């Protein structure tokens, strides 16, 4: 496939050398189009050596070949990484003052941009408006990762890892990266039993990058808290990051999303929620259940990523509990309803796809997957994403690894990598289960 890799002037340009390697090693013919300023970060020789093609930056180079038109026309996929605030602004404004922006105007193939910049620049209303404009035109703009930026500062603005960008870009044209290490999981990419998603399947609901367009999805995230008294609660360590990644990934793929967020810190919900994600904050399991069921009444997909307290105190003290000298305290707990099992047993909408997560540790009675299989059968969800927790895995970590089981406990796929990569992998599996839209024509 003919790919144009655009590189604009950000320090993360060095990561695009790895992205280029991934794409060429996957057998693609990649032409690199850097902006003139980006050559301050990575020079022409690097791009020429790694791509095996001459590199031009200007519309005045090699005028006889009219490259600014031919490169865009011939491209089957355009990836811009890093996309700086300036590049996003010029692309949104329809400028064509260098070869890359000219290519963006002439290309008629899927375009993916991976922004990277300082947090303030990403969050500035001007950048938000430019991103919204590009997205409204069908450009697939990834959200940047959060983490360490160029200086000592941290926050949203980091370029996502090259494997994540490559996987997201190839997904737009119904392709995947080959499984480089042969471990069956791909590098941040899902493997689904039954083969890769066929290109025609990816277009059922719009173009390849918007395969959830027209779908309404509900995602629960975080961990519920059950109050003991006005200041104390029973809770868990879930941060809500995986649920947030699921909500963002669904929105980026065109879905309307309701995120039922149980005690999710605002700092987790960065970059700020895209317009097509409605966030419903909740605290207790009862509140979560009510919010999920209300939103699920007209949803196509419900994903229960929240860690839900199985028990709550039978009573909540009106005033702060006082200790009495030397005496212990026995709490009486009652069981909470199982929100996922209820949704699976009695669908709120015909054809609704219900997905659960299972956080498991192995024990003397079975390993993580044994427990996962038993839970899949017990809960009856269409998909159960089983992940190992404890020993530093799962909660609060940047990466995740899940095995996807169907309602009979059979394995349908695996995904490993960043929480964003796992989120996209899960939607890849969900998309196969959603009934095709009823043609009203
Ligand atoms: N879940 C739910 N309602 C509950 C408990 C869990 O909807 N009261 C959902 C979670 O959101 C998740 C799935 O069920 O999608 C599995 O959660 P998990 O905590 O792994 O399972 P439990 O049902 O709590 O089982 P156990 O603690 O016995 O392993």
What distinguishing features does this structure have?
441 residues; Rossmann fold; five-stranded parallel sheet; binds cytidine-5'-triphosphate
Question: What would you say this structure looks like, in words?
Answer:
The protein is an alpha/beta fold and 441 residues long. The protein folds into two domains: 2-171, Rossmann fold (3-Layer(aba) Sandwich); 186-318 and 327-430, CoaB-like (Rossmann fold), CATH 3.40.50.10300. 29% of the residues lie in helices and 23% in strands. The strands form five sheets. The chain has a nine-stranded mixed sheet with strand order 8-20-19-18-17-14-9-12-13, with helices on both faces. A five-stranded parallel sheet has the order 2-1-3-4-5, sandwiched between helices. A two-stranded antiparallel sheet has the order 6-7. Strand 1, helix 1 and strand 2 (29-34) form a beta-alpha-beta unit. It is elongated, with a radius of gyration of 24 Å. It binds cytidine-5'-triphosphate. The site of cytidine-5'-triphosphate has 13 residues, from helix 11 and strand 17.
List the helices and strands and how they pair.
Elements lengths: L1 E6 L5 H13 L3 E6 L9 H8 L15 H8 L2 E7 L1 H8 L6 H8 L4 E5 L3 H5 L1 H12 L3 E2 L3 E4 L5 E5 L3 H10 L19 E2 L23 E7 L3 E2 L5 E2 L6 H12 L3 E7 L14 E6 L2 H12 L4 E4 L6 E3 L19 E3 L3 H7 L7 E8 L7 H12 L3 E6 L10 E7 L5 E8 H13 L10
Parallel strand pairs: 1-2, 1-3, 3-4, 4-5, 9-12, 9-14, 12-13, 14-17, 17-18
Antiparallel strand pairs: 6-7, 8-20, 10-11, 15-16, 18-19, 19-20
The structure holds cytidine-5'-triphosphate (CTP).
Cytidine-5'-triphosphate binds next to helix 11 and strand 17.
